[in-house]
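Standup, Tuesday
Yesterday: got the pipeline producing structure tokens again.
Today: sanity-check two examples.
Blockers: none.

Example 1:
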Amino acid sequence: MSTRTLIRGGLVITAADETHADVLIEDGRIAALAAHGSGPAQSWTADRTIDATGKYVIPGGVDAHTHMELPFGGTFASDTFETGTRAAAWGGTTTIVDFAVQSPGHALREGLDAWYAKADGQCAIDYGFHMILSDVNEHSLKEMDLLVEEGITSFKLFMAYPGVFYSDDGQILRAMQRSASNGGLVMMHAENGIAIDVLVEQALAAGHTDPRYHGEVRRALLEAEATHRAIQLARVAGAPLYVVHVSAQEAVEELTAARDKGLPVFGETCPQYLFLSTDNLAEPGFEGAKYVCSTPLRPAEHQAALWRGLRGNDLQVVSTDHCPFCFTGQKELGRGDFSKIPNGLPGVENRMDLLHQAVLDGHITRRRWIEIACVAPARMFGLYPKKGTIAPGADADVVIYDPHAEQTLSAETHHMNVDYSAYEGRRITGRVETVLSRGEPVITEREFTGRSGHGSYTPRATTQYLG
């Protein structure tokens, strides 16, 4: 059965332009756009008509950095693929790219198959996978080629977490050389984990056990140093590089310097670095544990450099690094020892709204909002133009967004499976009203009308951001 949906009267915003247009959807794809009130638009008929008068019509968000059900620090991220993708939809995100994890000593394929199994039949929205390389050796390097052919076209390595995910410079160089030949994109967690571990040990020995010391030992200079080193290794390998969760001014400066040389080096930041700071880590009692993530929150003065990087395209993407752990029973594992607090924040539901608030606050334009939240992540990770835009032929992942509605962010009203909000009590303007995923309503006028299993696995092309 062919189904047609018509969205009438809204302001269609893409990264390229803003137009008052009606949008015709047919069989899960965008079929056509026409100026509101024009002859073509008036001739259209549909099974379902959505009135978007006074609202924005925007592409569904692409969150290219999530960790559903991630095992970490002796526990698991509290959102499943079912709860996490539902929360993403509530926040106007219609595609996530999650991280499958290779266990040391095991094949990439084994880790990837485990993530396929976790997500299969559970997701409310579409999803893809990156692959975390925990064990770079001849076998895993060969497997990288096979994964790229299968649509897993990006690989994350860690300069942090010795004994868990850490790769040394030689392993990183080999993986980068492989990606240079197979078209994959290396994603780097850039922090000097060896040096950080020394500072952690010294802090604990001095009795500095509170959550705020998590931020103090993970120095901005050690993020900048690792970012610089990753860039030089990528230059040696002749490979592009994408640095995840950039939090510090000094790290932005390293990316800017590389890009000024014309190098294919890219960076993402996350809402927590744009809207939160070390003041949150220093909240009294053990409250600061809620804000422990890595890279850590920085002093508020770093935020200006991040916004400048986003405006000037030295940072291309805002993802969430959504990795939620409940305060009760999970974050509490680190009482008396900040190094045992599971690292990660909830945020998949809040990204689109917080970035809209940034538009109102004058940090970015409306089109740049769509660029960094939808288009750039889709292009960076081989999903464009199927995802990230509203254009004929694209998947009908569409959000009707009310730019005037006011809301207060709170754990009492969010849909993430976590017992606190990192943005508790924050008042913002702008709210998702209706969400379509491939033309199917997932959120309908602030009610969840989707289902687990609607979301489909989406293989990805190699990065489309080069050149």
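Example 2:
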Amino acid sequence: MVYDLLIRNANVLDGSGAAHFRADVAIQGERICAIGDMPYATATTIIDAQERYLAPGFIDVHTHDDTNVIRTPEMLPKLTQGITTVVVGNCGISASPVTLTRDVPDPMNLLGKLEDFRYPSFSAYANAVDAAAPSINVAALVGHTSLRSQVMDSFARPATAEEIAQMEVLLSQALDEGALGLSSGLAYRNAIHAPTAEMAPLVAAVGQSGGVYTTHLRDEFAGLLGAMDEAFSTARNGQVPLVISHLKCAGAGNWGGASKALSRLEAAAQHQHAHCDCYPYTAGSSTLDLGQVTDEIEITITWSTPHPEQARRPLKEIAAEWGISLLDAARQLQPAGAVYHNMSEADMQQVLAHPLSMVGSDGLPNDPHPHPRLWGAFPRVLAHYSRDLKLMPLAEAVRKMTSLSAANFGLTDRGVIRVGAYADLTLFDLAVLEDTANYEVPIAAAKGIDLVVVNGSIAYHQGEISDQRAGRMLRRTERIAQSIPTFQPNQEKTS
């Protein structure tokens, strides 16, 4: 038999968390068809891995690439990190089911401009993704704030019973058409007035459909633990698996709180399906939020509609130059984007290393001066935190990017290297692997990602992107399993 693609002499990390093993991997069509020592095998394309590491393609569970997978289908920021699948629609904001006739509300403006919101149904969005033929796979959540934008005349109040019912109809249709589930961004001003009573029936609809609920918590600062309890309760009552988005202890007054937050997550995970995602940086990035403006941390403006000349400058400098307070300066800059240096390294490392956490970039591809996580998150975990700092074994770091992510989001036959699985693969050279993006120069491809295969086709090889893009929309067709993690509170968390 002549295989389509054969990768020889690889150190295979199969995604399970088990140690690597030496093997050849053969691919026929879209799937892996053989793994082992195959010295006499032949293939149309043969690549010698030269004992570099071969992992399942990385799954970025927290992205805001909703419209970019259509407008910029090459998706270079993802391919150059070894990412083969993105989950879009996070933090309560999604491109569908949405049409808009006025200004794009905050933070939906992170996803694009008015003309980018033209998908009245999930199926319309999914079909547009397939038509664009992105280089990577796409799976999508429906955003709660996006649902609100379709049925409410004002965000500054709870939804009425009738409006909740209208949102339920839109959500249920999207779930039937292949959406993964629902996301919320309850900390944002256009969702913060949504009480638990508004969320409960929507989350219950997700539970009935067999989807997942992800949430940017109502409070990531002093009220973190209470916000976590709200999320646990809402998901438990709705009988739905829960993912807490970018779990963090934000604000200088909350540094050192990771142990308490993780203990709360562990306790919940004994009784319900509960996980989180995390990005490997101590700064967040979003729209400029007056509630986060403080002189305790560094805040850098990344874009401003009324004052574009102030981009890439610290808010403190702008306020001093204008002779006004930080808050007044922020008001004058809005709408705007910002990077907030509001986390401690020790807290972030604790969350990143925890067995219940996955890796997500949370990159903002439409920001003209993006946070470096857009281009560097996944190589940074592998190179800096696993290889250099020994925060976790390499196999565990890969598990957090692959099989754990696939299981939590119902991505069947992905996130693993085994016979019959889709051939989404990433080959990397650990010795030279490095995230080169930083806050000064955030748009920079990582070093050491040598090969990326998507659905059996070479998508990226030795710095070159393929002309043939093999990614597709991954529509959910099955219930996402609600297994209780085997993790026990006294289990070793790092090595």
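Quick observation on example 2: The first helix runs from residue 68 to 71. The chain has a mean pLDDT of 96.
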